[in-house]
Amino acid sequence: MFKLMRFLKPYWWQVIILIIATGGQVYATLQLPALMADIINNGIVAGDIPQIWQDGGRMLLLAVVSAAASFVASYFSAKIGAYFSRDLRAAVFQKVLNFNLIDLKTFSTASLITRTTNDVNQVQTVITIILSLLLRAPLFCIFGLIMAIQTAPEMSWIIVVGITAVVISVAVIMSLVGPKFKIFQKLVDRVTLITRENLTGLKVVRAFNNEQVEKKKFIKTNGELTKLLIFVDRILELQNPLINIIFNGLTLLCSWVGISLLTQDFSYLGNMTAFAEYVTYVMMSFLMLSIFFIMIPRANVSAGRINEILKTKEKIHWLSKTKGIPNKQALVEFKKVSFSYPDASEKVLDNISFVARAGETTAFIGSTGSGKSTLINLVPRFYEATSGEVTVNGINVRDYEKDDLMKRIGLVPQRGLLFSGTVAANIKFGAPNAAEEQVKKAAEIAQADGFIRKLSGGYSAHIAQGGTNVSGGQKQRLSIARAICKNPDIFIFDDSFSALDMKTDARLRAALKPITKDAVVLIVAQRISTIKDAEQIIVLDKGKMVGKGTHRELMSGCDVYRSIVKSQLSEEEWRKETHGARA
């Protein structure tokens, strides 16, 4: 928990104002019982009216000072707490943005969402309590105790009895609920995970008629969470009656002891009244601290989960400045590159070498799990090569500053991902300053302009989160337009034409040719028709490069490639293909 206190550093001067205001509030408030005792002893009992007016005026002034100081302290505690949570949430979000694909697999998406929202809110609540109560409560307790003993030393043992009772009750409650908070956060993660899975996979759930199965999973986890919450709430609710019993018992004890002392000296009435108020302040401060210490275990669990993200060492480290000067001409080269996942015994990629030049298309094909997508993910450093070297424009990708490398790459992922906003905003995602003509030109090349104009609002039409209000083919075309609008040195298409029909695919690739004459084009595809005309086709099988060349060369000399082609053609088409290859 206290490791996160560094996020308060920018607001140190506001914390100082809060401390001063809190001190002023405590001082003003603790003077009120003493003035009341003076009014009773020297004013009412002695019949001194001027004394009553004088002390009453002081009490009124101190009450105003106390209220003003309380307002200032509350204002700054709420403000600092809000800024603290803002900065902490931003730090977690930025950390997650810097994770590579391997780092992201350490935490589930549902857990990352919960940690960024619920856990940060839990910590913010406790930070606000620390700022508003943790200083105020000890001051009230210490100085209230001192003034109570000075006012009525004969009754000071009553405070010891009250403090002991409060400490025991809080210790019992904490011992019962403390261990449950970690379980609570895990169950919240689980509920979030099930909800997210079902919302994103609703079509699959319905297609397989598994609504009842998923419902049972949710009901089971939700039931466990509910039972835990009921248990925790029941235990925490014991605090109020216990505190009431202690307070009422102390009030009764103060009255009984005070009355017995009044029989000896009636002027003790003011002291007894002041003492009772000081006891209330002391006990209230202990009550505040008890609330704080009950909330601390839960906040500690949340803080630990947040720190787990913040202290995660990124497996890929970027330089602050690119080493050397990249070549102006686009070029991607793999030099004996191998890759394996952490703690995995087998290599996903093994000894891959090739050169992809500007103005040429380099395509990758292979069976599922052959390593095609992993290979192209090494270019933008989503993964780090285990051995070997990946270079972009003559510079090792390890020697690039992050933005410098990313601005050279236009990536179209396998799943077309769109963001909530307008069509134009999605196309301009990688080039926010792109002109309207540039956006429309990119859409025309991606064969998206036609359907965009039919949308209500055209390029200003709203795209729902994840692009749920457009088809799969439309999402892919908008994703391709986004990469084209960026005008990068390297285009990476990760099976990005799979949702397009054959005619649209052919028109799109033909339209791409003129704008990629100075760029490297890397294509991962399953359809032979998509990559048939590529200047270089690389065939992967179980992570190894088993073929490299043009379509005609591979048809003549690569059995794996021939089997892939044969699986996609009819017998007649296959005969024509093999005849053309021999010719």
Q: How far apart are the first and last residues' alpha carbons, in Å?
A: 74 Å
CATH architecture classification name of the largest domain: Up-down Bundle
Instruction: Return the CATH topology of the largest domain.
Output: ABC transporter transmembrane region fold
Strand content: 5-15%
Strand tally, please? 12
The main sheet orders its strands as 6-9-10-3-11-12
> How many structural units, i.e. domains?
3
| Helix/strand/pairing category | alpha/beta
Helices, by number, come to 22
Write down the Rg: 36 Å
CATH homologous superfamily caption of the largest domain: ABC transporter type 1, transmembrane domain
Q: Uncertain segments of ≥5 residues (pLDDT<50)?
A: none
Q: Output mean pLDDT.
A: 82
* Net shape: elongated
Question: What profile does the largest beta sheet have?
Answer: 6 strands, mixed
List the keywords:
single chain, 583 residues, alpha/beta, ABC transporter transmembrane region fold, Rossmann fold, 3 domains, six-stranded mixed β-sheet, 22 helices
Descriptive overview:
There is one protein chain. With 583 residues, this protein is an alpha/beta fold. The protein folds into 3 domains: 2-310, ABC transporter transmembrane region fold (Up-down Bundle); 331-408 and 488-582, Rossmann fold, CATH 3.40.50; 418-486, Rossmann fold, CATH 3.40.50.300. Helices cover 62% and strands 11% of the residues. The chain contains 22 helices and 12 strands. The strands form 3 sheets. Strands 6-9-10-3-11-12 form a 6-stranded mixed sheet. The longest helix is centred in the N-terminal third of the chain and has 50 residues, at 49-98. The radius of gyration is 36 Å and the shape is elongated. It starts with 11 loop residues before the first helix and ends with a helix. The mean pLDDT is 82.
